[in-house]
Amino acid sequence: MPDAPVLVQVYQNIVLIKIDKDRLLEMPVINAVSDAINKQIEMHPKISLVLDFASVTNMSSAMIGKFIAIHKLVKKYKGRMAIANLKPPIFELFKMTKLHKVFDIRDSAEEVINYYKRKPL
Length: 121
Fold this sequence. Notes:
Layout: E1 6-11, E2 14-19, E3 23-24, H1 27-43, E4 48-52, E5 58-59, H2 61-76, E6 80-84, H3 88-96, E7 104-106, H4 109-118
Helix pairs in contact: 1-2
């Protein structure tokens, strides 16, 4: 399995994960990203998770399935999750699947981090 193309920054109980890959299409990459995120969730109970998509330009439906599972895991651990910096084609994919109503989608990671700092769990 390849190394996960993610960069992790932890601010107290806020975990920022920057996805450092433009195309999330192949299963080895998808599984590596998912596993890296799941590891952070398990390491930080009551996590405030921010997923930064600034680099992502293309994503498969398999990756969306992983994000749904990640969202459920965050909820199981009594945490919260936001997605930031979606490019228009990726946001359209979320809209087509109606997931823009499920996920907290924000314009920037900084916006989410500042909000989470003001409103701790």
